[in-house]
Fold:
Amino acid sequence: MEVRHLKLVKEVADKGSLSKAKDSLFLSQSALSHQLKEVESQLGAPLFHRVNKRLVLTGAGKIVLESAERILSELEQTEISVKKYVSGDRGSLRMATECYTCYHWLPSLMVDFNKEFPNVDIEILPEYSNDPVTHILEGKLDLAVVSGRVDNPNVKLTELFTDELLALVPSDHPWTKKKYVQAQDFADERIIIHSLPIETVTLYRKLLIPENVQPKKVIPIQITEAAVEMVKAGMGVKVLAKWIIEPYLHDKRLAVVPVTRKGLFRTWYAVTINRPDTPQYLMNFMEHLRCNIAGVCKGCQDATTPCVK
Structure:
């Protein structure tokens, strides 16, 4: 039994005849008669009998009608849900970022986004932070925020913003007398990083590895507050984004130094699967990311200009 048979039974039961049902089903009366005989033959039972020129449901017909009403209603709701998903009105968004510190801006972003898309559920999955792009490709994430480009034709990159990385040091550190530090300056230092492998750390990838510099010691610490306390205690130096460092600079025990004469910068991207039918809510969420993280939106001049909407 096919959907067309269910529609036929429902319309004939409502209208009472094939001649009246043919207009709403956009078929001729003879075509409907053929379909009715076809489904009755498949089921081995008549679905209608004639009473005073009107087709009335038999017992078997009532069973089919009950299923038809339920199934057709579910199909209609499914179609509506899919259309809302495609148009961006309804759906779910699973995301992660490679930097734990980035999660602090999510609550305010989610509040703003949910005002626009109240039927989109956002799920934050920090357990996928170490390798979010792989989880995008495996279908476990819809969006990942990463620093640095990803060379894979199966994912799409949307540039979000660029930030500068500075060296955070104790206020009595010799580097505070320098205008900036270079790669070789790190050779005698204990470097605090977020996590291994070191090849994923921007400082290493962009500066130390190209200059063949190996620090005295590398200390992985994933909690920013703990890393800052270690810097205060003189147990190492840490290279952090300027926007991460700023809340801690009221402490006179800390100081910052630029990295290289031209500065050390990284670019952040939103990574999604490369597909032609990206939901509208996902594209809008990436625009919210631009505005909430970096203060950048269409019409802004640069990454330091406040976003005004």
The first strand starts at residue 48 and ends at 51. Residues 296-309 have pLDDT under 50 and may be disordered.
